[in-house]
Amino acid sequence: MKHYNALVIFLSELRKSVRLLGISLLVLTVTVFFLSTGLISVLQDHLREKLYFFSVAGPFLAHVKVAFFAALYLLMPMLMYVLWKSLGKPFGVSGKRLFWFVVATCLLFYGGTIFCYLVTLPYGVKFLLSFQSENMKAVISIGRFVNFVTIFILAFGVIFELPVFMVFSAQVGLVSLRAFEKNRRFAVLGIAIIAALLTPTPDVVNMALMGCPLYLLYEAGIVVIRVLGIEKEKEKGKSPESGINRRAQS
């Protein structure tokens, strides 16, 4: 029942900011659209591949997609603030705690995207295109190229936020530190599955480029929970979980 009340409060709080987020995303997408040609050139030069289009609307749609994902990328601090404000409402998380959740999430997101852009993505594209030969040359569609690069980079940024959500889960009583420590083998299995699904190539090296940092972040989340003494606070009855009932009743 407590978790149901928390979900209702979270959705109610999130709904208040949906319109502002939508308008901001639309305005920034239109603004970035005029710079999308340069953004595509940067991605193309970074991966050193020629791009082609197979429909009249292909180039235009590719520019729209790049502008949308770039706007989403730039608006991430605002998105994270709205998300954490909505999540923190039913659990009584606010003030400095809320601020540090937002800052940590943004830093990990941008760190993950930069790591993907500089390390994983070039290696993955190079590996996939290594199978071409004299009789089989790659002809890369600009639309599919944009989809592949943008979604892959954003996905890397999202999964790098794992430690923050681990700390939050422990702080509000959803998952305990002991549960995180006890279920390491399941965490490894889950990370391996995620790496296999999200990496562009099926080889072990490329999967390890995602899986290893992700597991290190999992362990980092456990260390942070210990250092912050979240479990000790809960034992003393200071857990923010009690805020659920107070928020639900008000």
Structure description:
This protein is mostly helical. Helix content is 80%, strand content 2%. A two-stranded parallel ribbon has the order 1-2. The longest helix has 35 residues, at 95-129. It starts with a helix and ends with a helix.
Query: What's the number of helices?
Result: 12
Distance between the ends: 16 Å
> Which percent range fits the helix content?
over 70%
Largest sheet: 2 strands, parallel
Shape: flat
Beta-strand share of residues: under 5%
What is the number of beta strands? 2
Biggest sheet, spatial arrangement of strands: 1-2
- Model regions low in confidence, pLDDT < 50 over at least 5 residues: 238-250
Helix-strand pattern, N to C?
A: HHEHHHEHHHHHHH
Counted up, domains total 1
What class, by secondary structure content?
Answer: mainly alpha
Radius of gyration: 21 Å
Whole-number average pLDDT? 82
What is this structure's SSE topology?
Blueprint lengths: L1 H32 L2 H12 L3 E2 L5 H17 L1 H16 L3 H35 L10 E2 H18 L2 H10 L5 H6 L1 H15 L5 H25 L1 H6 L7 H7 L1
Parallel strand pairs: 1-2
In short:
The protein is mainly α and 250 residues long. It has helices spanning 2-33, 36-47, 58-74, 76-91, 95-129, 142-159, 162-171, 177-182, 184-198, 204-228, 230-235, 243-249, and strands spanning 51-52, 140-141. It has twelve helices and two strands.
